[in-house]
Design brief:
2 domains; alpha/beta; Hypothetical Protein Tm841, Chain: A,domain 3
Length: 286
């Protein structure tokens, strides 16, 4: 009989509608703060509602991690189902305190074994690690084997993205080399990379079209055309550009898995609307 264990991701994970439920992947809540109101992403605030609320120029959205009480509620719910083992995959610890909260809460449960894995990344990278674990579970691999897989993939899922606006990135304060990037008043489109938990600006381009072209160029520089990859294309309120990028990805590479997903309000609060990007790992790296 296959070993039962739960797979839990935080609220920055990027899945298309229904995919998380189909794979039985649970979620820790993350919150978006707009003015004096706080919302739980994906629960009482959809992506469409979020972008409508932040359209006004004076609105400054923020984000917050789950509380220990919220983590405990999720863990207890899983234990009540008779599941005593959980893999919890979180956003990089440099970008949020979620890893710390999830780990500390897990240590309080004496009747469950909870392994918390720092993805060293965010968004689609978390999702790709989770789907790898879900396949391992489906194929009868043990909890320890799935946990080891998650830890191997942590830090190996690459993200390159083209952002459309600077203001939200500037507010986040999470960009390495940000002073140089924001020192100019030019309407540049930064190309961002997440490397071992750090968001870095690797280039800045003057127009959206050139930013997309440069994004593709950088992806091909890291992955030879025809390579086997596990990937997802993510965006913040820009499905058309994301679908065009996804078509290009599937033409250039052999995608073992691939989906397109809205990255959600938590990522939108930091990256702003109009961001598109690719998350991937080489299939042979598993």
């Amino acid at each position: 009989m296959a070993e039962r264990f739960a797979i839990v991701v935080d609220g920055t994970a990027s899945f298309p509608p229904g995919m998380g439920a189909e794979l039985d992947i649970r979620h820790l809540p993350l919150h978006v703060d707009i003015g004096n109101e706080s919302y739980t992403a994906g629960v009482d605030l959809t992506a469409e509602e979020f972008y409508a609320k932040i359209a006004a120029p004076d609105v400054k959205p923020g984000t917050s991690q789950p509380s220990m009480g919220e983590c405990r509620d999720i863990y207890d719910r899983i234990v009540r189902e008779g599941i005593r083992k959980m893999i919890v995959i979180t956003i990089a610890s440099e970008l949020s305190g979620t890893y710390s909260v999830a780990s500390t809460t897990g240590q309080q449960l004496s009747d469950a074994r909870i392994e918390v894995v720092d993805s060293r990344s965010v968004a689609g990278a978390i999702s790709l690690i989770a789907t790898a674990c879900a396949r391992a579970r489906r194929d009868g691999h043990s909890f320890d084997e799935a946990t080891a897989l998650a830890r191997r993939l942590a830090g190996k899922v690459h993200i390159l993205a083209a952002a459309d606006v600077l203001e939200y990135l500037k507010r986040s304060g999470r960009i390495s080399g940000g002073a140089a990037l924001f020192g100019s008043l030019l309407a540049v489109k930064p190309i961002l990379e997440i490397d071992d938990g750090k968001v870095q600006a690797v280039d800045r381009i003057r127009t959206r079209e050139k930013a997309t072209a440069r994004l593709k160029e950088l992806i091909e520089g890291r992955v030879p055309p025809g390579s086997r990859i596990n990937a997802c294309t993510v965006h913040t309120n820009d499905p058309e550009r994301a679908l065009a990028l996804a078509d290009w990805v599937q033409q250039r590479f052999h995608c073992v898995e691939h989906w397109v997903a809205e990255a959600g309000p938590v990522i939108g609060a930091r990256g702003g609307p109009g961001l598109i990007g690719l998350c991937w790992y080489r299939s042979e790296e598993v």
